[in-house]
């Protein structure tokens, strides 16, 4: 039996994990982006997914072997496309910071990732829009998008208020124009993860039939989708490593005179591992949340995106990205956050009526 309110809680936990994963990367010293992104990614896309799926599901490899090959290939394909967005996600944070970067990228991601799956499945116009609970869930999506837009407006207003020196202090490589273009691409491609999860529903059902608890039946799907994402990220990072000749940094990081400590491969590996596993937890909790949302599981994507932006905005305050902002800018941010929190409540309520 589904429990949408519990599902909302799980999605909040997933959003917290996703919003927090990039913070440990800030501790990495002497490694270029492509090095720490790839090493952190090995924990995110390979080690954590398969280890958790192995211990939390029944007959993992038997379930995957029994799955239809077309289903597996489709999941991998969507993972490849998602990987194109995932590998530019770090660049979005790099040029826009946590708050504004996530607002733009995840706004697009939330819309397409929520709307497209039920449209493709043929249920959006026949089973979602005509019903009262379906309209309530769509209202939650609209509230989410409005909240994202308002938070994004606050970030843009902040950028206008800040001096170049302040922007460089809080976000060393701040570049609004470049960051927005990267965020646009990132958001469109990142929504493909939702398509992959929807395409992998038969795998989740096979896992449940094998005896996996309802909460964890979606974990094998995450493993398959991430195969595609791993391929995309591996190719891109390998290209950057070769072009920039940064492979030597893995064993001998560049020394940064401004760093608070001497650059160390051991410490860097630890921070990358923490970042990577934290990133994975967003989908560990995602599948748990989706399992509780009933027939409108597609609404999980909106809950996930809203939760990420809520917690990333709070991280923005913790990391002083909003320091010195005017009352007008802060009003934007808090109003946007209110819409986002409200959207999760509305969606949870709509699902409880199904």
TrEMBL record:
Entry GO terms, CC: membrane
TM helices/strands, residue ranges: 6-23, 35-55, 61-83, 95-116, 136-157, 178-199, 219-241, 262-281, 301-318, 330-350
Highest taxon listed in the record's lineage: Bacteria
Keywords: Cell inner membrane, Cell membrane, Membrane, Sugar transport, Symport, Transmembrane, Transmembrane helix, Transport
GO MF: rhamnose transmembrane transporter activity; symporter activity
Any Pfam family: RhaT
Protein name: L-rhamnose/proton symporter RhaT
Species this protein is from: Cellvibrio polysaccharolyticus
């Amino acid at each position: 039996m589904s429990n949408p309110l519990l599902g909302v809680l799980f999605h909040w936990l997933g959003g917290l994990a996703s919003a927090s994963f990039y913070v440990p990367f800030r501790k990495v010293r002497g490694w270029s982006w492509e090095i720490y992104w790839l090493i952190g990614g090995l924990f995110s896309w390979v080690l954590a997914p398969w280890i958790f799926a192995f211990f939390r599901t029944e007959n993992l490899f038997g379930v995957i072997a029994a799955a239809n090959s077309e289903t597996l290939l489709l999941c991998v394909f969507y993972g490849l496309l998602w990987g194109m967005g995932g590998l530019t996600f770090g660049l979005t944070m790099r040029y826009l910071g946590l708050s504004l970067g996530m607002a733009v990228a995840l706004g697009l991601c939330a819309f397409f990732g929520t709307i497209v799956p039920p449209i493709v499945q043929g249920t959006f116009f026949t089973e979602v829009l005509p019903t009262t609970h379906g309209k309530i869930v769509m209202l939650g999506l609209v509230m989410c998008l409005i909240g994202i837009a308002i938070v994004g407006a606050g970030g843009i207003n902040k950028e206008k208020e800040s001096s170049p020196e302040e922007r460089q202090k809080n976000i060393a490589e701040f570049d609004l124009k470049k960051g927005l273009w990267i965020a646009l691409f990132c958001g469109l491609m990142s929504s493909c993860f939702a398509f992959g999860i929807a395409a992998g529903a038969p795998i989740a059902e096979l896992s449940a039939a094998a005896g996996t608890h309802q909460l964890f039946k979606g974990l094998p799907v995450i493993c398959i989708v991430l195969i595609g994402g791993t391929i995309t990220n591996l190719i891109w990072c390998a290209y950057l490593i070769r072009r920039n000749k940064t492979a030597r940094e893995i064993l001998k990081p560049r020394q940064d005179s401004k760093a608070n400590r001497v650059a160390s491969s051991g410490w860097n590996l630890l921070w990358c591992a923490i970042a990577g596993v934290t990133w994975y937890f967003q989908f560990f909790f995602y599948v748990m949340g989706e399992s509780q949302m009933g027939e409108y599981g597609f609404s999980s994507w909106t809950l996930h995106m809203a939760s990420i932006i809520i917690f990333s905005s709070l991280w923005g305050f913790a990391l002083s990205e909003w320091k010195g902002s005017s009352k007008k800018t802060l009003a934007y941010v808090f109003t946007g956050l209110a819409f986002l929190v409200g959207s999760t409540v509305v969606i949870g309520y709509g699902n409880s009526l199904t």
